[in-house]
Amino acid sequence: MGESSPERSQRLAEQNQRNSQVCARESSVERSQRLAKQNLRTSALRARESRLERSQRLHEQNVRTSDLRERESSVERSQRLAVQSLRTSELRAQESSLERSQRLHEQNIRTSQLRERESSVERLQRLRAQAERQQLSTNRVRNRILANSNRLAFRYDPQFDYAQQASVQIGVMNKICSNCSAKKWADEPNGMCCASGKVCLPNLQEPPQPIKNLLTNNHPLSGHFLTNIRKYNSLFQMTSFGAKEIREGNFMPTFKIEGQVYHLIGSLLPPSGQNPQFLQIYFISDADQLSLRSSIAPTLKMDLIHELQTALNNHNVYIRSFKQNLELNSSDNLKLIVHSDRTPQTAHRGRYNAPTVNEVAVLLVDKDKGPRDIVLHGRDGQLKRVSELHRSYDPLQYPIMFVTGEDGYYLTIPQQGSARNKTVSCMQFYAFRLMIKSNSFNPLHYYRDLFSQYCVDMMAKMISERLNYICRNQQRLRADDYIHLRDALNHDANVDPSNIGQHVILPSSFTGSPRFMHEKTQDAMTYVRNYGRPDLFVTFTCNPEWPEIKAELVPGQRSFDRHDIISRVFHLKMKKFIKLFVKEQIFGKVKCYMASVEWQKRGLPHCHLLFWLETKIQPDEIDSVIVAELPDQQIDPVLHDIITKNMVHGPCGEHNLAAPCMKNGVCTKKYPRRFMNDTQTGEDGYPVYRRRDTGNGGRSTTLQIRGNMVTIDNRWIVPYSPLLCKTFNAHINVEYCHSVQAIKYICKYINKGSDQATFSLRNPHDEVENYVNGRYISTSEAVWRLFEFPIHERHPTIVHLAVHLENGQRVYFTPGTAHQVVQNPRNTTLLAFFALCNEDEFAKTLLYHEVPQYYTWANNTFTRRRRGEDVVGHPGIKKDAALGRVYGIHPSQSECFYLRILQHHVRGPTSFAYLKTVNGIVKETYQAACRDRGLLENDDHWGNTLSEASLSHCPKKLRELFVVILLFCQPSEPLKLWDTFKDQFCEDIRHRIRQQNQDNTLPFTEVIYNEVLIEIENKLLELNDKNLSDFGLPSPVRTQNNTIDTMVQQYNSNDLTAFVNDNVPKLVPDQRHAYETIVDSVNNNMGRLFFLDAPGGTGKTFLANLILAKIRQSGKIAIAVASSGIAATLLNEGKTAHSTFKLPLSVSLDQRSTCSIRKNGPLGKLLQDASLVIWDECTMSHRAHVEAVDRTLKDLRSSANVMGGITFVFAGDFRQTLPVVNRGTRADIMKACLKSSHLWTSVQHLNLRTNMRAHLHGNTHSNFPQQLLKLGEGIFPSLNLGTDYAVTLDESLGQIVYNLDSLIDAIYPDIENLHQNDFRWLCCRAIVSPRNETVNEINNLIMQKVPGEVKCYKSIDTVTNIEDAVHYPQEFLNSLNPAGLPPHELSLKVGTPIMLLRNLSPPNMCNGTRLLIKELKDNLIVAKIITGPAAGELAHIPRIPMIPTDLPIPFKRLQFPVKISFALTINKSQGQTFKLVGIDLRKECFTHGQLYVALSRVGAPDHQYILLPENNITSNVVYREALQ
Question: Annotated region Disordered: where (predicted)?
């Protein structure tokens, strides 16, 4: 009797309850036994069931599970998943590594067995279900939109599944073209398959049996056939394939060739006595064919060869046609023609038609032969090349693919619906053929290795079509300057135009040509000119294991069998990748980017990308976005799996000597890298990323490499971004562009193109031949190009602007069009710019390269942009992000080179004559115009400088100026300058001698000249250890009274004694202890090394000067140096360490550098005799410089003692800023710190703790010094603000202001009347800020308020190597702003304060000396010194050439070495004391000690004003390790 469903439910419920009670009472042993028996019964049942029963059971089980899932609520589902995850996690946590390996192994076996048992239908069902589940999962996650993706890469969350974001998903291939039924992904363009219906070709026929079964794995020999498919095709091909195949290693997942590809065909019958080959084999008996083919390839299956042979003989129209004609005409003189593109007689001309047997090959009638037709002789023994554009090019070479003989591409295939009878291009034809169709079987996708060869062959055909056009047109297309063509035709009407001009060469529009690559490199440099150095260099490599690729493979295929899918998926992923940067802004807002796709080695595509970010990545942020370590497998198992599969280099070396990166036994990629505890700066401009060893927080893992288990640690990890790798599951190398040192390499590397071979040139002038012979083509690249995917992408666009002399524009003509070109020459962008400036008032305000921002170039004219930002004050004008680049010109083309310079300096030119006009006078040449505009460097600068100075200034100042010019400006003819100005140099000497002799008629004599020469040479020796003879000037005659054997300064002992006696009693206890200890070391020749630890305001400078006086008082030599020019001016006879010790310009810890001091020179002798050296602000100096001084002194003094046995006093405060390492990380700075030197262990510490500044201001603010010390030591009290460095400042440290205007008014009140104040008023006040950009902003803002006319000085920038002038044009050099150099455009006013950027004449004019401008002349700045020992004196500052040391681009900037100094950087203010200071903290301090330095420039908080953000929170960066 049947039970009802309620009864059944009740029974089952009761049964479950009983079972639960029984299970609850059983012990763990009983439970294990029960489960074991249950598993055994289940396994026995599973083994007995048939495939049908199994499918039925699984189906019912899935239905029950689905019903349960549908009925459960979201809460129940969440609970179920949570419980399930918990159980799984507990089981995983309890299992050992051996159990885990065993579980995974068994799981893989079960999966493999299931895969083997499933039919093709089941596999397709499984894949569809898997895709649906993945899509459902994706849809659930897609709604989870991140609230703020800006700079998301800096906030990586290991728990978040970034790969499921909608913005990075490409979806499934389910978009169907309505015209051709091609399947596409949603983001693929509509026209990529059939050009929106314009390409209409019949589908390829399904191959006959047994070939289809062989392709679809339905034949017993399918595996063998598909593995050897290229060999089988070669047995039946009718033409020979000519190309050099490239193989790299044992595993080559792509087909790759070098050089030309060509097909050759012979006669129908072989020459007498020779075996038939290729097509000739088809004309012998079937048995002989089989025997011959088997002997050619003995490893192939004879039965299979026979089956294929039969299929081709029965179905291939070419074989049948050739046989039919040969049977009818057996003569050896038989000639057959296969027309390249003839339409069958019965077909419509507007359709693409397949050939029939009777129309493939016909008897040759000579008049019918076309240039690309194939003529087959009966027997002539010659090989003929088949034209790539012949319709039979494909079927003759690939009979296994085109079994019935379907036509390939030819020129006259019509486009559908074209109004002008356009034809289908080669690219369109093969893009159509490669598409997956939803309603038809495309046999091409099943041919694996042969398909790879076919794609390469067809790309070579496509390129050959373009190159043949260029080659054909070179015979008739000519190029010449317009003026030459015009003159030739005007002077001789009968001249043959084909004899004018020159051949056209491979143009820059041809992708991959040398000019194409050069233009892309120059475009990258244009971005650098406008946006500075790039921030990120990223390499994104395709992952062939992506599920989107595998989902589209047919059964049995591997990903590298389908490079069409690989290319399409990677193209879509690359677009998503760029969108993630540009739209989602995961690294911040992107100002511009450049991308270049390449194929190298084994053929997978990869993309190099450069990104310029609006917010620069700071050194301390690197580790949060770029990692070179294995992730924690417990915290982030998904990322760990991705990194171990994709981001491990090699391993190579001893693990694999045959690795592609190995050369001469060494890895060319420099792996394994060394362990690093912290990220540091490398010598090549890239950071050396943190790679910790396993004993210091690093991790390792074990990988199977070539059958062996290899342990991998962080030394093998390629730098990556966790977010990017987790998002795209691919090899994504991310590099931080640390400095411009990397720019030159990157800009060339990203545009170098795919691999090319090195070969000897038969004709070095034939660029087409050289390109074809040197190229490599791989399958993946071939497919990419056939689909017309871009190889280069960039944003914003760059408009290339022509440059040419008048009537010198390039014109192209044929013999038939030469006269027409003369009458109507082509307009160029330059001529259009002239016309625009004549018509448009706004255009007159622009430079040539600025035009594309406001105007578009179309139809040979410039028109105003319709979209973009409105330009204030100019209605109707809109500005876009487009950039202009004027074509580069080599200096050897002198006039055109100087014309180009003028175009970057003259606004709104209306003609060529306008460019030549200077001050209303039209110059004869562009060079003369450049010279008169001051755009060229020559010796006239120095003569004009001295002339301007001689008009109003004393001879002594002229001599000082002459010394500066000799030392810094390298005049080419210094003797000429001496001869011209020697009388002005000697005027005061002659006047003195006239007074002495009471003879006012005394002329200039050699004695007078000699005295001046002695004075000049003494100054040269003092400043740079140089003689006059070193400059080609006459050496003075010296007597005993003025020898040059010593540089010892003579001091007045009485003055020194008085100074010592007056000030020693003033010493506080800690100062007195230091004073007595140092003096004792000198007096007893102990040669000790001291560090005087002196926080700001503790009287360090006062003590140092007292010690110097004490030592000099006793007749001994005491040398005072400082790391900065300002600090040097505070010491008695102090100089900078660079000028005193001649420190090397470049800093390298890997080189044992020394100072440039001659042992027998004056400076060498001075150091040999010295008893004491005091080095102030030593904490700012790089330890490599200190170590170089140590090595030098040991050598000079022939002593092994530290510092050569001199008593050496380092003075400073490690709470203040440490050595400047350009964009250096914390580890870089600490590595450069003096405390990291081996010398530090020899140092004796002396401490000053009494704050003299506070003491002198009374006890009102006695807490101020203690607060400063707490700030400096990083223990200043602060709330929990979320970061280690954040502090809150209040009125106890200074008066708080909340806007920049208030800060300026507090420090510089009544700035409009600045000229009424004494220079002393200026020198005691300043505004300081952490960054140069804010300093420049403040300086420009204050200068605008100062009354007076602005004078703008533009620098002259030139490359030191003339060959670099094309690569680095002048406007690019103008855009560079290296540290320590003045800007290209220096705007100044009389009455504004400036600061020196070079040590022109220490100690009076040092780097950091502040001056007040008195006169601004064309070639000279006259200023009053307002700081240092020469305060109140006038100084003359000329332009000097300056070469930056931190750039890979060697260039020279000729400019005044000054900057405006209302505001200073905090680093520049170190060592100075002010009465009033403003501190701009809108931008936070970014390195150690900056806030401490800023707040300790005054003695009391009442005297400083602090500009803070609204919350009063700022950053106090302190490196605790520097204070230990």
Answer: 1-81, 93-117
Q: CA nearest 369: which of 352, 357, 355, 384?
A: 384
Same domain, 734 and 712: no
Where do the DSSP E strands lie in 695-806? Answer: 700-705, 708-713, 732-736, 776-778, 792-795, 798-801
State how beta strands 1385-1388 and 1207-1212 pair: unpaired
In a domain, 22, yes or no: no
Distances (CA, A) of 190 to 681, 846, 1507: 48, 41, 57
Whether residue 567 contacts residue 784, with contact meaning beta carbons closer than 8 Å, is answered with yes
Give the pLDDT score at 1085: 92
Residue in 1397, 1379, 1393 with CA at minimum distance from that of residue 1327: 1393
pLDDT at 256: 53
What is the full DSSP assignment across 1460-1515?
E-SEEEHHHHTT---SEEEEE-SSPP-STTHHHHHHTSSSSGGGEEEE--TT-EEE
Low-confidence ranges of the chain (pLDDT < 50): 1, 141-146, 343-355, 357-359, 361-367, 369, 475-478, 480-489, 491-493, 495, 497-504, 741, 754-768, 770-774, 1260-1261, 1282
For residue 718, which amino acid is it? V
Residues 27 and 17: their CA atoms lie apart, in Å, by 18
Mark whether 131 and 259 lie in a shared domain: no
Task: Assess contact for 971 and 939: CB atoms under 8 A.
Answer: yes
Distance CA 500, CA 486 (A): 11
Give domain status of residue 1087, yes or no. Answer: yes
Last residue of a domain, one of 979, 1012, 1042: 1042
Q: Which helix (H) or strand (E) holds 886?
A: strand 883-886
> Are residue 1143 and residue 1239 in the same domain, yes or no?
yes
Residue 209 lies in a domain: no
Residue-level pLDDT at 1389: 94
- Give the closest residue to 1027 by CA, choosing from 966, 977, 971: 966
d(CA 453, CA 450): 5
pLDDT value at position 236?
A: 87
Tell the burial category of 531 from Cβ atoms under 10 Å away from its Cβ (0-12, 13-18, 19+).
middle
Residue 113 domain flag: yes
What are 850-859's contacts with CB under 8 Å, separation 24+? 850/884, 851/801, 851/884, 852/797, 852/799, 852/801, 852/880, 852/882, 852/883, 852/884, 853/879, 853/880, 853/881, 853/882, 853/883, 853/884, 854/878, 854/879, 854/880, 857/799, 857/829, 857/832
Longest Cα–Cα distance of the chain, Å, equals: 152
Helix (H, G, I), strand (E, B) or coil at 1002: coil
Q: What's the confidence (pLDDT) of residue 260?
A: 52
Amino acid at the residue 289:
Q
Return the HEC string of 1068-1124: CHHHHHHHHHHHHHHHCCCCCEEEEECCCCCCHHHHHHHHHHHHHHCCCCEEEEECC
d(CA 1404, CA 1280): 48
**Pairing relationship of beta strands 1325-1329 and 1463-1465 according to DSSP bridges:** parallel
Strand partners, 666: 663
Cβ neighbors of 158 (< 8 A, separation 6 or more) are 631, 635, 636, 639, 722
CA angle 368, 371, 376 (to 5 degrees): 70
CATH number at residue 1230: 3.40.50.300
Are 732 and 718 in contact by the 8 Å Cβ rule? The answer is no
Cα separation, 335 vs 904, in Å, equals 67
How far, in Å, CA of 397 to CA of 265, rounded?
10
Count of domains forming the chain? 8
**Integer distance in angstroms from the first to the last C-alpha of the chain?**
92
> What letter would DSSP give residue 1348?
S
Provide the pLDDT for residue 353.
47
The span from the CA of 779 to the CA of 785, in Å, is: 10
Q: Which of 359, 394, 413 is the last residue of a domain?
A: 413
How many Cβ atoms sit within 10 Å of the Cβ of residue 576? Answer: 18
- CA 89 to the chain's CA centroid: 43
Domain that holds residue 1174: 1053-1250
Q: DSSP letter at 618?
A: P
